Amino acid sequence: MPHTVTTMPPLNGLRVIDLTRVVAGPYCTMMLGDMGAEVLKIEEPEHGDDSRGWGPYINGWSSFFLELNRSKKSVTLDLKKKEGAQALRRLIETADVLIENFRPGSLAELGFDYASASAINPRLIYCSISGFGQTGPYADRGGYDLIAQGMSGIMSATGSDGGAPVKVGVPITDLGAGLFAVVGILAALRARRVTGRGQFVDTSLFEAGVALSQWEATQYWYTGEVPRGLGTAHRLNAPYQAFRASDGHFTVGAAKDNLWTRFATLLDLPHLIADPRFDTVGNRLKNRAALEPLVEAVTAGRPRAHWLAKCEEAGIPAGPIYTVPEAHADAHARARGMVQELEHPQIGRVKTLGNPVKMSATPPRLRTAAPMLGADTDVILQEAGYGGAEIAALRAAKVV
Fold it and tell me: CA 249 to CA 315: how far, in whole Å?
């Protein structure tokens, strides 16, 4: 039964100290912000998050920063100055979660490692997102999505067989690490209800890449075969890939025997159904190189729309291969709210991607566009007990 939607988002009342920059951490905190947490994005006063300086620009604003920093408040603090560090300690006293993606050890030098922060607030959930995690021989290395994709095995298993390694088109380990961090934080918050204490959550880009390689790990462990690039094909099913039409490509998932029968029939290739090379999933997988040209010899003769309509009529999963703007314009993406607009105080309406999680009673809400640098500093410091004169002095000393 559907529930009555409330105005109270699921993480309402939680305060998150966000010490993250660029992609993985900001993606994590944006998800928490959409879920109702009060996210205080702590930025250095002069330039803020590095990504504020990355194009392309919209009226002087980084579109990259706009997309990853909605539903947050910006507080500027110079943590290298004692007054800035003291202000952060006062905020940590009031926080539920602290998230950082500095190189391991960097925050310890400033007095904000897990041990120091948990001494200030024993209930604090402290999450670190890094390139390789806080332990192990590579812990001190910097982390980038490209490096993590390469070292996790993803790039070797992407692209065409025999071709050069290919990076996944989206920063999959950055975004994956951000999502795994959300999972860890929510689990730690649940555990805190029982123990009354916070804990340390540690995840990384490298581990995200390894953890997302489920099919590839399975193939290697149980067959001894080293996974290689397969283009659009699947490691365990066939036909389950993109095929060429006269005006582009479309995808088909017809691996099950009943779906394969329907697909071969609509292609007017019924003789392939009982062909011993293709009569089971295992045989089709083994002989995929022979099957693909037989299918494409037919599909290449008609436009994509023709085959998609035929597959729809036959109950075969299929779809177009969209460009990014085509995906955004699709009626289903629109119906599911995956393209939204928010009001920005300086540049007006800005587009943003919707939250993919739908909830019947306490849905996520995209509350505000990405904040201007330091826009919330005075209000947050006042809430922490600072008077107007004290804030003015901090500003004069370039602490905020």
Answer: 19
What is the per-residue pLDDT across 124-148, written as a single tens digit (0 to 9) for each? 999 999 999 999 999 999 889 999 9
pTM, whole model, 2 decimals?
0.94
**DSSP code per residue over 332-395:** HHHHTT-EEEEEETTTEEEEEEPPS---SSS------PPPPTTTTHHHHHHHTT--HHHHHHHH
Secondary structure letter of residue 236 according to DSSP = S
Per-residue model confidence (pLDDT) at position 1: 42
What is the C-alpha separation between 97 and 16, in angstroms, rounded? 5
Please say whether the beta carbons of 281 and 234 come within 8 A: no
**388 to each of 45, 75, 79, 81, 346, how far by Cα in Å?**
18, 16, 20, 20, 26
Q: Output b/e per residue, 100-121; b: 16+ Cβ within 10 A.
A: bbbebeebeeebbbbeebbebb
320 token code pair: 């177009």
The span from the CA of 27 to the CA of 371, in Å, is: 15
270: its two tokens: 């019924």
- Is residue 49 annotated as a catalytic residue, yes or no? no
Residues in contact with 298: Cβ distance below 8 Å, sequence separation at least 6, in sequence order: 267, 268, 269
DSSP state of 278: T
Over residues 80-99, the pLDDT tens digits come to 999 999 999 999 999 999 99
Query: Residue 232 carries which DSSP code?
Result: T
Rounded mean pLDDT, 244-258: 96
Cα gap 207→84, rounded to integer Å? 33
8 A C-beta contact, residue 97 and residue 35: no
Place 225 in a pLDDT band, splitting at 50, 70 and 90.
very high
Give the amino acid at 171.
P
Which of these is catalytic: 18, 96, 145, 174?
174
Distance of alpha carbon 26 from alpha carbon 53, whole angstroms: 15
Tokens of 17: 């100290």
Based on the number of CB atoms within 10 Å of its own CB, is 46 exposed (0-12), middle (13-18) or buried (19 or more)? exposed
Judged by DSSP in three states, 109 sits in helix
